[in-house]
Every structure is written in structure tokens, then in C-alpha cells.
Amino acid sequence: MSKLIFERSVEGRGCSLLPESPFERTELPARLCRGKAPRLPQITENDLCRHYTSLAQRSFGVNCGFYPLGSCTMKYNPKVNEVAASLEGFTEVHPYQPAYAVQGCLEVLDTAERYLCKITGMDAVTFQPAAGAHGEYTGLLLIKAYHHHRGEDHRNKIIVPDSAHGTNPASATMAGYAVVSIPSAPDGCVDLDALRAAAGPDTAGIMLTNPNTVGLFDRNILEITKIVHDAGGLCYYDGANLNAVMGIARPGDMGFDVVHLNLHKTFSTPHGGGGPGSGAVGCKELLTPFLPAGQVEKTGEGYRFAAPGECSIGRVKSFYGNFLVVVRALCYLLMLGCEGIPAAAQGAVLNANYMMKKLSSTYDIPYPGPCMHEFVMSLQSLKDDCSVSAMDIAKGLLDRGIHPPTMYFPLIVHEALMVEPTETESRETLNEAIDAFLALYEEAKENPQKLHEAPITTPVGRPDEVKAARSPVLRHRFGEE
């Protein structure tokens, strides 16, 4: 086990290379000073470099190997997008600069908005939300403002399918709504009878994604949105799975009124590690009066920020969102173009169906499809027969250099593994992953104990996850504590 940087610390060592300040030293008032100096590690530059290099080598990402994490679109992102986002004209701006001094940045926001409107079938987009769940919350605030403006505050319920992402009911609750969960039909899609029973005068809207979390495109999507609209509610589209349909099917054409997009998933920014993200929110014209401040408009004299409408929900984040994420997304859109965007979606669907077909004779596929960008396997029978769980198979994949897929989600599938290959993986990589899954299945039957102990080749073996959850160690304990 590698030492923590605090454990490498030796008193008196350091690596400060900063020159002496030419300015006069000014002492802060005592009320602004710490009671005692912070306990920072004292370490040489050489050891510091080795420490972080070691951590980087132990980290696994899409630049290391196959990363089929479902519902997260963990795909390779072109490095040219990083180059574009590092240009000085984008990184050195200040949000308080006057509009005439940041015309290029405003053009980025305006162009990205137009492209995303075309892809989603929406009429306007705000880039303020900082992440997907933040986008959900913002979209729900738009819905709430819309009903309030119409004098329909009694609409206090949001319908959420039981296969939805967990952030959906959480966001609805944060927005002040009561959540009505409806079951899935046997085919994995929305139960229309349950939806009709749930929709009524108190319905504010529905939240769902299409394709859904079991990787299926709901063939009844137009009927679903019609039922909600006929009840007086609005339809919210969770864009987490847009990677499967971008450039092919538009949420706006399906009947949705508002949508959030994960620019940090679908449109290029590397996803994970806590950010930065961008949960851009698009909406139809009926909701544009309620958008947050900071919308860009083009005039005869150039670009400027439009004054917010009287009904605006106000800012949901300081300034204009995570701008460099938008730069990356626009670079991605410009490079792929009108032909490349749908081709990426088609590649994602092809890869998922290829893997599902190859594994279907061995693993149980509860919803055989055809699937969209991801598919779900159930290992319940394997657990019943061999006492090998989805967790065991996932841990075994680590020993084969593959990041595990999503485990135990969606909740409607027991012992679930959700696999999303993404369009950026080659057939050779997919075949290697398929062989790994098949080999693990045979190993589960022949030597289940080995999988119970997996992984055995990684820097960290299998932890006691129950103890980690109940008694987490969240900070280093110094010797005197």
C-alpha cells in the first residue's frame, strides 16, 4: 500500500522555488489569522513528483482501457477539444469584462446554443447549470414558474418512472414537488395504464429519459407525452442517454418541453472526478420567458447579453456557467458536423447490440431489445447457482484490465450489470471484453471462490465495503490524535 503524502512528510524538508517577494510584508489582523499553522506535508520536490505520478499510474480511465460504465458515456474525447479550451482568448477572460471585449466568447455561447437547439428540437438553451442534476433542478424550476404564472400552483406532483435515474426524484423533491413513481411494463418501458392513472389535475409534469435506463427506446413515447400534456402537465427529458439518439431523434419532436444535456458526457468534456460539468438546459418557446439571466443575443452591432425577462427564475449559478466545457462541446460539434453526430450515435447503438448479442447465449438479458446505446444483464441465476454475484463479476473484470460496468442499476433488474460500450471503442476491444465476460462466467462455475477474492492483481484488493460504508475514514489521523 502506498503511503499518504502526510506519511511521507519529514520535518524541515520542502521544495519552495518561489523568489523573495519584492513587496513590503503586511501583517494581517489577528482576527483573520489561524490559531495555529496548517499541518501541511513537508516533502521534497522529487518525492512530491513521485507521489503524484504513482497515484496517476494507479488511476484507471478511458486512456487506460475499456470503460463501459452504463449511463455515463465514458467515451474517449478528442484532445483537440482540450487544445481549443486552453486558448488564451478563452482562459484569460473575466466575467465582468464588457460585452465588446469578449465577442468571441459570446459567439461561442450563441453558436453552441443554436447547434444544440437543432439537435434537441428546443427553442433556447441556457448554459448556467453546472452539472446534470443541476440541470434537472433548473428545468423543474422552469416548469414550476410556468405553472405559477398560469395560476396553477396546485400542480404539485412530478411523475417519475421506477427505472429513472436516482437524481430525478431527488431533483423533483428539491424543487418542492411530490414524486409519483409509476412502474415499468413487462417490456421495460413505461406502463401506459399506470401513467394514465397517475396523470391528473395536480400533475406538474413527468421526468424520463428516452432511451430509458434499460437501454430501450420507448415506442410509446408520443403517447406518453400526449397523456401528460392532456392532463395539463409538461414533459421533462433527462438527456443522460442522448448519446444514443443525437442527430437522429429529437426530444422536442417526441413532445418534450424542456431537456437537460450533459455536455460533460455526450459532447466531449472528460467525465468524472467531480467536474467540471455542464448541465445545459433547453426548452420550448413557452418556457423561454422563465430562463435564467445571461442569455446571449445577436444584434447588428455584435453579441450581447439580453436583459432577463420579468418572469425569469433568476440565476442558478454565478455568471454564465462552466464556459470552457461549452468550448469543448462546440469544438466537438464543429468537428463532427451534421454527418458525424448521428454517425456517433449509430456507432454507440451498433456496439451495444454487438456485445449484447455475443453475450446473450451465456448471460441473462431481461430486455433483449434490440437495445440502444446500453444493455442490462441479470446475474441472478448465476448467483443462485454458483453464489457469484454481479459484484464478483465486476471485481473479476478489474483483474482483466477492464473497468466494471454499472452495478445493481436499474433497481428493477436484480443483480444487474449495465454495459455501455460507446461509439469510440473498436471491434477488437469489444471482442476482448466479450471474451473476458465469457471467461468470468466459466470461472464462476468452476472456481467461484477465486471471484469472491477478486481483484487480486490491482494495487488495492477487495475492501470491506460494509465497514467502509459504516465506519469511513475520511481524513488522515495524525499521531497526536
Would you give an account of this structure?
The protein has 16 helices and twelve strands. It has 481 residues and is an alpha/beta fold. It folds into three domains: 36 residues, no CATH class; 257 residues, Type I PLP-dependent aspartate aminotransferase-like (Major domain) (Aspartate Aminotransferase, domain 2), CATH 3.40.640; 129 residues, Aspartate Aminotransferase, domain 1 (Alpha-Beta Complex), CATH 3.90.1150. The protein has a seven-stranded mixed β-sheet with strand order 1-7-6-5-4-2-3, with helices on both faces. α3 packs antiparallel against α11. The longest helix has 37 residues. The protein is globular.
Question: What order do the helices and strands come in, and which of them pair?
Answer:
Elements: H1 5-8, H2 45-58, H3 79-85, H4 88-91, H5 103-120, E1 124-126, H6 132-149, E2 157-161, H7 167-174, E3 178-182, H8 192-198, E4 203-208, H9 221-230, E5 234-238, H10 251-254, E6 258-260, E7 281-283, E8 296-299, E9 302-305, H11 323-359, E10 375-378, H12 380-386, H13 390-398, E11 406-407, E12 416-419, H14 427-446, H15 448-453, H16 465-470
Parallel strand pairs: 2-3, 2-4, 4-5, 5-6
Antiparallel strand pairs: 1-7, 6-7, 8-9, 10-12, 11-12
Helix pairs in contact: 3-11, 5-11, 6-7, 11-14
